[in-house]
Structure of EKC/KEOPS complex subunit BUD32:
Amino acid sequence: MSQNPTPSSRFRMIKKLVTEGQNNAKILKVEDTINGGVYCEKHPLCIDVTSGAFKREIDIMSQLQGHPNMLRLVHYEVIDDPDILVHAGKIVTEWCQGTLHDLIKQSAATNTAISEPLLWHCLSSLAEAVRYLQYGPAPNGMRAPGWNMYFHRDLCPSNVFLASEQGEPFPRIVVGDFGCSTSLALEESKARTLVKDPDADPPFITSAQNPDFAPPEAPRFNDRSDIYQIGVVMYCLMMMECEPPSGNLIPRLHENFEYTKDMRDLVSACLAWRPEDRISAQQLVAEVELGAGAFTYLS
């Protein structure tokens, strides 16, 4: 992964994907003029640079590199110079072929239910991603020594990407867009700052969380909040809806007999209204392994 400074001319624009939006100045499809690779280039809003939010996003992505379900960071630049009034930057990541949002739209347009094997693959990948956010690279169910627990806070179909894998039946499921993310250490630091000085202005999150996928406890969050968002993403995949209705999703989920009871029960365990009633990340990984294995055997 290259870091600032690197000549900006290294990446040549192929196509502009998104002009200025809610959380980004622009998003481009680019080509690396050195190795010919195709990547995605995201430019932040000025406020995200000046507030430190963009640097926080880069720091979090850097810490999460190496996991197959985390978006691969290729290069970044940050220019925050008040003397010359320049507040800009870029994040260059691996190129993905689409998102779960695209998959839902395609399924709804053709009225074709997403296959249950693919749903198990999605659920397994999201569970592994959140487990890694919380526990790091520790295989024994304990948090890795020195690992800083992370919270994504904005898991939704448009932030979960599909990366094609040659020879594999399903694409690699990749979690991206960490603009709303934070860490336990950062939140504890902010709390200590406010205790010492209630009028202080500690670092804050400027990117807007998608309200349709926010957990009931929002804007507060804990280690079960990302689990709830996994449940909502899975609900949308199962119901072929890009956005969920408001309120309790569990009753409507169980009216969908397209999928096995094991799948519906596990997604329901993610959607419990109270955080303390939701399944944990570690439990979810274990239950998905059992459920996916049983489904494969029965199939």
User: Anything to note?
Assistant: DSSP finds nine helices and ten strands in the chain. The first helix runs from residue 46 to 50. The longest strand covers residues 24-32. The chain has two domains: 11-94, 98-296.
